[in-house]
């Protein structure tokens, strides 16, 4: 498709998904107030840095005076005085460099520590967001908030933006000294300030807008790259490399253009200030050489001193312009960070006992009572669903894809809040239970197994802050998978537990990842067990071996087995059949077959196909 071709509806939807909402305008003072709580614990470094700025400003003010003295004493042929002035200037430069080092170091130390605290706060906040928010938000966008945007804010400290305080101090001191030296020359130098101020005002909103656009395009690019790298196998399988490259080019060009606008405004301001400074110095020199010839009060030493102050006057002005650009990027990053932290879609609070539904029976394991639930408003996934399992009972949930089986598991773990009805675990309303305590009651084996980078031991024992090697080894033994994983070898009997797990466990087969998930559940040894299509990724031989282990794992536990393959639910006590978000049948395998309903139809379709395949 050419660059000028109209994008398809699918492409427009994709762009809308990756593009971010506009960030509301926030006053700089309000942003600074929100950053302060993260900076406050490290304020002692900040105060030291600001205190040193006064020393730096004072030292800088003395340099032109010393240089003027050198010129004056040289004109008088006073070699001793010139030598002393040279030592003074050297001492001033050495002190200035040492103090500048201490000032920059303490400022960056305060900033680095504050940004580390801010990143930790963002990560903690992400863990408190509801699953609904993650369902509709690209991962790359959230990663950008905790990385690029925090880095942009941290650059304000690393680049010494707060040194603008020192620049203002220097400017104030320079103005006072220049007026004391010659007020008429000072007025010539200051005549250009309104032009500089006008440039800064003109730049302010444009630079902030450009930096907002950079941050937005960065998030979009990160989200796109995250999606493409995660789905690279699908892209290659469907030969979509060229199409995805074209879309990447479009996103990348938008990111480039946003940076070009920011660079343009920065270059304009920097060049304009340099030009104004040059014109100002030229005007002063012209006035000195033409307008005040024969003025005995205006010695060569005074002119040199004054020229030095003019140069120093525009140095902080130029630095202020550079820091202004960095400040705009920092404030834009802060806007986006606090936009995330203002999200209200966090996990609901735990209700008081009086606000919860009455407790269930003493032997109740799990229960859903007239539960209706929707991922999107107006499209219920579960409709008035009621089911229960006694403690120690094993219940299978079966039905077609999209019938709502896996949603039940999410509601039991309180990953989502129900629209209406009550969900109880161990007889208690889940809304009144602490989330961590509630989820510690479950061992979950999902269909899509997620392994973290690390080792086999760290993945199997992820629920345990102090991994137990013997317990992990026993988990694999119980599953009959010890021999399979022990082949990875090592220097001792259990060295295979230290086998490396690459990102998302890509160095293990799908079946091996599923077995690791089973071992993780066995290791946790929780009273409630959820198996969500837990054998979907293993072959028939492995499934047969797992069946015996599963019976042992489920023994004495309340187990919810979500399955499409009916061959995996032989050991359950009862089967609940879902159809279009409702419970339509409930009973044992024999009872449901005798009914001749939905379950009997599913059973006939699956096992008649298996029989045909076996015959062939």
What is the structural class? alpha/beta
Shape: elongated
Overall domain count: 2
Question: Beta fraction of the residues?
Answer: 5-15%
Strand order of the largest sheet: 6-9-10-3-11-12
Low-confidence stretches: 1-5, 22-27, 610-616
CATH class of the largest domain: Mainly Alpha
CATH superfamily descriptor of the largest domain:
ABC transporter type 1, transmembrane domain
Q: What is the helix tally?
A: 21
> What Rg, in angstroms, do the CA atoms define?
35 Å
CATH architecture of the largest domain: Up-down Bundle
Describe, in short, the structure shown.
By secondary structure, this protein is α/β, with parallel strands linked by helices. It is built from 21 helices and twelve strands.
Can you put this structure into words, describing what you see?
The protein is of the alpha/beta class and 616 residues long. The protein folds into two domains: 9-341, ABC transporter type 1, transmembrane domain (ABC transporter transmembrane region fold), CATH 1.20.1560.10; 356-615, Rossmann fold. It contains 21 helices and twelve strands. It has helices at 9-18, 28-39, 43-75, 79-128, 131-136, 139-158, 164-181, 183-190, 193-230, 232-237, 241-291, 300-341, 405-412, 435-439, 456-460, 469-479, 482-486, 510-524, 540-554, 589-595, 598-615, and strands at residues 364-376, 379-390, 394-399, 420-425, 428-429, 442-445, 454-455, 500-501, 528-532, 558-563, 574-579, 582-587. Strands 6-9-10-3-11-12 form a six-stranded mixed beta sheet, with helices on both faces. A four-stranded antiparallel beta sheet has the order 2-1-4-5. A two-stranded antiparallel sheet has the order 7-8. A hairpin with a 2-residue loop joins strand 1 (364-376) and strand 2. Helix 3 (43-75) runs parallel beside helix 7 (164-181). Mean pLDDT is 80; it is low at 1-5, 22-27 and 610-616.
